[in-house]
Write a structure and sequence with these properties.
Layout (H helix, E strand, L loop, with lengths): L22 H25 L2 H12 L53 H15 L3 H5 L4 E6 L2 E7 L16 H14 L6 E6 L13 H18 L7 E6 L18 E7 L1 H15 L12 H4 L1
Parallel strand pairs: 3-4
Antiparallel strand pairs: 1-2, 2-5, 3-5
Helix pairs in contact: 5-6
Membrane topology: Single-pass membrane protein
Protein name: OmpA family protein
Pfam families: MotB_plug, OmpA
Length: 300
């Protein structure tokens, strides 16, 4: 046997019909996640206001410091800073079983506004306002747009067809008739209303007012009075303010005629809640918070 070399035979076993692995599932999941993020970005671009877009852009330009756009380190300012919640877990206002407490004016029908409702409201207002002579004669005098706060109607002054007497809060007859017609349209909608008055940056030189702050406030109140005269319910008025020239419509030219305007905003439910909460925190009295451990024995 020593005369022959040993022969080694190696047999390669091939598995047929085995498992092919799950790599394709991971690739499909990554693709679906990327598409979801892509459409989310498109949605944000579509619904965000110019101020929110500028804030987001500034955040990504410099997320660790003050951005070049003048915004802070948060992509969107939600009106406060992160803080520990002081909300009590015990709700002392729970209704009795089988009963429902009567909703207050500010709670009734104040939830659930979404983009679809705003679109429908905007379309209805555009259709109704087509019948107003002021819009048909000079369309750029009125602008209707959807904002994060709701649907905003902006009435812009025109030197050839002004809204007020020069340097006064006295409405011209044409503008007064327009507001009376708008009040009839607003009666078809139950959303709260905010009215703001604006002026250009020209120094006030008339008589009867101290400055543009007084003038813008009086013009906003004049618009409110006409809307109430037209049948708008008083409780629908959520806020009436004058902003002088602090929020110009035309930022390039602060003295532009466009900056003399009245804005009427039909607020969404969430915007109305934020307005009430902010007003109570800033201007309300001392907040009283009940202790959850309070019992009749400790009180009496």
């Amino acid at each position: 046997m020593n005369q022959y070399e040993p022969v080694i035979r190696r047999v390669k076993k091939v598995k047929k019909g085995g498992h092919h692995g799950g790599a394709w599932k991971i690739a499909l999941a990554d693709f679906a996640l990327a598409m979801m993020a892509f459409f989310l970005v498109l949605w944000i671009i579509n619904v965000a206001s110019p101020e929110e877009l500028a804030a987001i852009e500034g955040y990504f330009n410099d997320p660790v410091g003050v951005s070049t756009s003048g915004y802070g380190t948060k992509p969107i300012d939600l009106g406060g800073s992160p803080a520990k919640s002081t909300e009590r877990k015990l709700d002392l206002d729970l209704p009795e079983p089988g009963s429902t407490p009567e909703a207050s004016d500010e709670q009734m029908l104040r939830s659930g506004n979404d983009g679809d409702k705003l679109e429908k409201m905007n379309a209805m207002l555009v259709e109704q306002f087509k019948s107003l002579d002021r819009v048909n004669s000079n369309e750029h005098n009125m602008k209707i747009e959807i904002t994060p706060e709701g649907v905003r109607i902006t009435l812009i002054d025109d030197p050839d067809k002004p809204m007020f007497e020069r340097g006064s809060s006295q409405l011209v007859p044409d503008m007064e008739n327009t507001l009376l017609s708008m009040a009839a349209i607003f009666k078809q909608i139950q959303n709260p209303i905010v009215i703001t008055g604006h002026t250009d940056s020209s120094t006030y030189i008339g008589s009867g007012f101290q400055d543009n702050w007084d003038l813008s406030s009086e013009r906003a109140n004049a618009a409110k009075r006409v809307l109430l005269e037209g049948g708008l319910e008083h409780r629908r008025i959520a806020q009436v303010i004058g902003l002088a020239d602090t929020v110009p419509y035309n930022r390039v030219d602060p003295q532009s005629d466009e900056n003399r305007r009245i804005s009427i905003t039909l607020m969404t439910d969430e915007a109305y809640k934020r307005l009430l909460t902010s007003a109570r925190l800033r201007y309300g009295g001392q907040q009283v918070e009940l202790d959850s451990s309070m019992t009749p024995e400790t009180v009496f």
